[in-house]
Description:
The structure holds two protein chains of two kinds.
Chain A: H1 2-17, H2 20-27, H3 42-46, H4 50-56, E1 68-71, E2 75-78, E3 82-88, E4 93-100, E5 107-112, E6 120-125, E7 131-139, E8 142-154
Parallel strand pairs in A: 2-8
Antiparallel strand pairs in A: 1-3, 3-6, 4-5, 4-7, 7-8
Chain B: E1 8-14, E2 17-23, E3 46-53, E4 56-63, E5 72-78, E6 85-92, E7 97-103
Antiparallel strand pairs in B: 1-2, 2-5, 3-4, 3-6, 6-7
Amino acid sequence: MEVGIDLERRKALKTGGGLGLLGLLAAVGLIQPGSALAEWQKSAFDAKTMDEALTALGVVVPESSAAIQLTAPDVAENGAVVPVTVESSLARTEQISILVDKNPTMLVSSFVIPAGTEGYLNTKIKMAQTATVIALVKADGKFYRVSREVKVTAGGC
Amino acid sequence: MLMSSPTKMRASITNGVTEVRALMQHEMENGRRKDEAGKLVPAWHITEFKVMHEGRTVLEGQFGTSVSKNPYLGFRFKGGKAGDRISLSWVDNRGDKRSDEATIS
Lengths: 157, 105
């Protein structure tokens, strides 16, 4: 008996209250189920990487560029002091940022490069663990990115 | 509060390009380290710096906590000449600031 009541109650909830927002909108003619919502974005939901997903959603992902050199050791013994050099020969290099994907905070430093200053920076960064170092360069209003993996023997964040 | 120490800076000119090497003196505490008593050491780091040459900015930038202790910078700019002064100033997240100079050789 108990079970029966429960089932009835559920049925009532389903038919009565289950119309939901979509059903309501459909009822007043605002949308037609199955067609009015934007097409299901297969390429975005199939994406296996962040970049693929962003691209599929129409976000401009920074391109790689052979005009940017990112120099860092393959293996860093001491993660507290990892030398990094970024050299961009892109015309009108106006900003250089350095990021580490597995640090507690990703953005290490960001530099504004005025006209007359070369697209060159040599600095030292902390790395918590083996990770990818990313140089993000803005040149002539557009973003570019190069990266390289650095193996860290002893983390130093 | 401890007094901050001067930035060590060298600038030399070759073929019209001035190469600057600067070593700022700062702990650059990331805010996640614990001291001997197990207490969290608060974040303390340079947030912004600027390098000026003859009244114009030749480099400026912002730092987070992943910049190494005693931040090092090497960069190059055009338009300097031997004897010119350059200055590097910084400010940290406690509002402490300082400015130091070097002569281009």
